[in-house]
Amino acid sequence: MKVFPAMFRRLFCLVVVCLAARWPAAPAHAQIQTDYLMFSDPDFPRAPMETSFSTRLAEVWSQALDRPEADLQRMAAESMARGAKMGVPGLNQAVARLRTLLVADDTHPAARAGAAKALVALDSRDSAESLATAAANYPGDVRRICERALGEWKFEPIRQTWQERLTAAGARHRDRVLAIRGLGLSGDPASVPQLLDIAHGVLQPAELRLEAALAAGRLKTDGLVADAQKLIDQKQGVSLVNRLAAARLLASHKQSDAHALLLKLAVDPEPAVAADALERLNDIDCNLVLPLAEQAMQNADHLVRRQGMRAYTTLPTPERMGPVSRLLDDLVPGLRQEVTAKFDKLLEQPELVPAIWKGILEVLGQDSWRGQEQAALLVGQHRHQPAAQRLFELQSIPRPEARVAAAWALRRVAVPETLPKIFKRVDQLTKQRVSGPMLDGIDEQVAHLIEALAVMEFWQAEALWRLYIPKQPVMGHYSRGAAIWALGKRFDDTPQPELAQQLVERLTDTAPVPAEMEHVRYSSAVALGRIKADTHVKRMIDWVGEPNLKSGNVVTPHALAVRWAVMQLTGAEYPELQPFPVGKGGWFLEPSQDPYAAKP
Hints:
The chain has 600 residues and is an all-alpha fold. The protein contains 32 helices and 4 strands.
């Protein structure tokens, strides 16, 4: 009976360790985005967007703070916290009231936590003493919110409280964690001896040991190698925790003996340890990781794979691009997308281009949709025409992600030899979407293929495009918009009365069920401008509203397209477009009859 509790404790400890060892996700990288040519050709002005908020939001929220109801106080304070991050003006006027709510004995706990969040979001460093008072008197969420901010603000008076809490009898686990984190953020190395005692304490909870090691590693940039080695050699306690703590102690060390120890940890069989060590080595110097990078990219853990990729792409050579290219097919979306973004930039270096394309095309030729999608995005982004045949082959695969990316890439590479095949595939998909079954991604795929036909002036597709004019939801909004845009390109500068009549009906359709699609209205307006539909100018102006055109208050995409078309057809000159205020609405409490006006 004694075995099971021990096993449970050990498993629980390992779970905590693995979670604690996971660092925040890699920062977002600029991803290649598929687009539609119909939205940028022609390229005409759009109404500039200006973020604005009601001038009285701060006022009404402050009034809510003064109410006795705890829910009103809480919601007002939380709205202020969100509003501060978004740029709502005038919130500083509520700081005094928020401080009062924070420390008053009769404040409801939820309202107190909201007040703490608001003061932190407002970066009210003058309120640091009030936050320290609240942290001392009100444990739980309030203490967590306040002490995190006080650590980041390096509020010196609270450091002694944190140091005392580390050894205080009866101190709660989560409060000790807060103290350790606060000391790690404080920048004061005086706490390092206490933190080391916790990191070495085999009887301490795993989370405390790892937090203490990380905090000590932040505060001291040298001299902890012996402590790290001692942890590694430690026979007591959980070996995994010891090794993780050792890696964290060396977080800021730049000395060669620290590097040697981190290199040993970087090949640890436990991925959490290896990932930590590799990340620290990469932060110090990616050259240190190079001997381990290719092996790391084959690890079962994506955090280890990412660090190997990071070293090779930071210090790229043609020989290193092949192993990196295999990660285009990684199971983890964020990692394969990061590799795509890296290659997108590295293709600017001529000496790397042949090796990168060799790897991309190998992945494109494989059967995995993940790699096919990322490789197709790179092919399209850089218009790599040798891949055209493979891109067309991908038009019949089951997965929509790769199919759509490849269709977009076909339009981008624009190889005329693919035109008959593309036309045949669009014809097949058009018949299939009417008779079923409907494929996932068919709307986006067909739209890209129709644009490819139009870009390469395959006017034999005209009859097929006309099938997309009638209002049939099954034909999709992207596909219908692309087909109408393509007809405008086909008859550019050539009057087409019958077609113009059909398109003006699509533009001004008023039937509520089903409502005409915005993309269809937009493309119809653009096509009307191109095919010289002069006889429909008045109807187009009436639809948008002549006062709107003359004042520059035009916002919706299809109305902007009408504005462009009327200018093309009549030579009229309209004033510059007025900025369109974009604010955050839907707050729990908003002023009535007050327009968005203030600009943050």
